[in-house]
Amino acid sequence: MLTVREAHARVIAAFSPLPSEIVSVAEAAGRVLAVSPQARLTQPPTDLSAMDGYAVRAADVPGAPATLTLVGQAPAGGSYDQALKPGEAVRIFTGGPLPMGADSIVIQEDTRADGTRITILEAPRLGRHVRKAGLDFSLGATPLAVGRTLTTRDLALAAAMNHPWLSVRRKPRVAILSTGDELVMPGEPVGRNQIVSSSGIAVAALVRGWGGEPTLFDIARDDARLIESCIEAGAQHDLLITLGGASVGDHDLVQGALKAQGFDMGFWKIAMRPGKPLMFAARDRARVLGLPGNPVSTMVCALLFLKPAMERMLGQPGDLVRTQPARLAVDVKQNDQREDYVRSTLGHAADGSLTVTPHAVQDSSMLSVLAACDAFLVRPAHDPARKEGDAVRVVDLRTLQPF
After folding, report:
1. In degrees, to the nearest 5, what angle opens at C-alpha 363 toward C-alphas 359 and 368?
2. Residue 81 falls within a domain, yes or no?
3. Phi, psi of 71, rounded to the nearest 5 degrees
4. Residue at 265 is within a domain
5. Beta bridge partners of 328
6. Which long-range contacts (CB under 8 A, 24 or more apart) does 130-133 make?
7. Do 80 and 100 share a structural domain?
8. What is the pLDDT of residues 223-263, one digit of tens each?
9. The model's pTM
10. Same domain (yes/no): 256, 226
11. pLDDT of residue 247
12. Dihedral class, residue 249 (left if φ above 0, else alpha if ψ from -120 to 50, else beta)
């Protein structure tokens, strides 16, 4: 059996960045940059006032009080276009450009006005309350890097850089195929030997949340020709996800259908828990990731393998999910030959350090346990028994929306 890292390496090696497309900056939230936009201007374009008050020459007010002569004003969107002479002041408002010769702002609270006579009650420091030209960014700057998933903050910056359009990676198109006579969709009548299918809906939500466009196929019954037809349709997407049909004891219809369609089977068994029956296959540009049928196994494998594959298509590294240190809140037994992702709850010790408590039941069919946990305790293969307080590694699910 492959290790998790070996399987992950094979999966991400099979994917490359998708082509780019142009979208409106207003519609680019959550998209991944394909080209880093260059600032088309300098911001601010000139020295501006950061406060309402008076633009002065600091040399004219070496101490306070001092009296200057008001000669004009510079509102935001307007300007005083003459050079400031010794002993002069200009009324200025936030965002207004500094007149030539001015180098400081005295806020209005520190002044007293009597007609054109402005008494300065507190001497300004040189450059006080002045936003220098280029303080935010300069012409040609590239503060947003290729491969960045754009936030609303990034969109505000791109818009300020005078970009109405951005070049982003096309969203990965991901087909999702659940197989099995035992499955019915939520809301349908449930037969005596049937269960409600949840994995396809969950994977579709993950694909959408990770920046892709999911296509959820109808459940394919256990019919070889039907499954072959569905696989052929799914292969027209950037990635086909199959759910179930590859475990030991299944009819192996999915593997058989893939082989009949000319796919090379990369692997179909991983040394991990949950999720041992993970499958990967390829044919020309078509890629198929076969996730286990048990819903918890589906979700864990999606996090470890589907998410990195999508990231690679979006021009990102596709690294394995990050872990962080924590300390055991209870003793745990020795682990076997499979890397284990143990559903757990996080807490904090008296000193504030992170602690982790595994759930008592770890059955891979129990979605209630998965929904209740906020972490995976990651136990390496053959990990020895551990005691309360021992250092371990965890995946903090609270940081992995929409998971």
Report:
1. 65
2. yes
3. -120, -5
4. yes
5. 356
6. 130/47, 130/48, 130/49, 130/50, 130/98, 130/103, 130/104, 130/105, 131/44, 131/47, 131/48, 131/49, 131/50, 132/44, 132/47, 133/42, 133/44, 133/45, 133/46, 133/47
7. yes
8. 999 999 999 999 999 999 999 875 555 557 898 899 999 99
9. 0.89
10. yes
11. 57
12. left
Q: Distances from the Cα of 18 to the Cαs of 105, 172, 329, in angstroms?
A: 51, 7, 44
Residues 346, 373 contacting (CB under 8 angstroms)? no
| 306's tokens | 């589907």
> How close are the terminal C-alpha atoms of the chain, in Å?
27
Beta bridge partners of 53: 92, 107
Structure tokens of 213? 């466009």
The domain of 158 spans 22-43+139-169
| Residue 102: closest CA among 130, 75, 123, 77 | 130
- Token couple for 25: 């900056």
Write out the two tokens for 53: 């008050």
Regarding whether 268 and 189 lie in a shared domain, the answer is yes
Task: Please tell me whether residue 337 adopts helix, strand or coil conformation.
Answer: coil
pLDDT tens digits for range 37-54: 999 999 999 999 999 999
Q: Are 55 and 102 in contact (CB under 8 A)?
A: yes
